[in-house]
Amino acid sequence: MPVVRSSEAVTHEIHGARFISYAAPLTGSEELCAWRGEIPAGTRAPAHTVSREEIFHLLVGELLITLDGRTERVRAGDTVIVNAGSTLGVENPTEHTAISWVTTSVGLTAELTDGILLTPPWAN
Question: Do the beta carbons of residue 50 and residue 79 sit within 8 Å?
Fold first, then answer.
């Protein structure tokens, strides 16, 4: 039975945010990935288009989520469904770190608006 202890989770940092990977092929998952995101106060992640559906659940805090050009204020307890091919932007306009839980399928890529293709290690 694969159990990923919090002390074994792999941490990645990019664009000012921290991603703590729990479920991924590296930890024994064959189809799904899941991670905790920590978005510090004042952080604005660059808009990116995702190749796979993501389920983004905000555990703590408040964020501005822009999905395909439409911006919504998202609060703790809210869930955003990001369909494959959607363009997502995340901003934390508050003075506190926001914490999210995200799930997707293995193989997610994210294309930045400048054409750079990212293969996030926490989703592959």
Answer: no
**Separation of alpha carbons 30 and 79, rounded Å:** 24
Joined together, the tokens standing for residue 89 give: 């932007």
Closest CA to 82 of 115, 45, 116, 114: 45
SS (H, E, C) 55-115: EEEEEECEEEEEECCEEEEEECCCEEEECCCCEEEEECCCCCCEEEEEEEECCCCEEECCC
Q: What is the pLDDT of residue 116?
A: 86
pTM (two decimals): 0.92
CB 105 within 8 A of CB 29: no
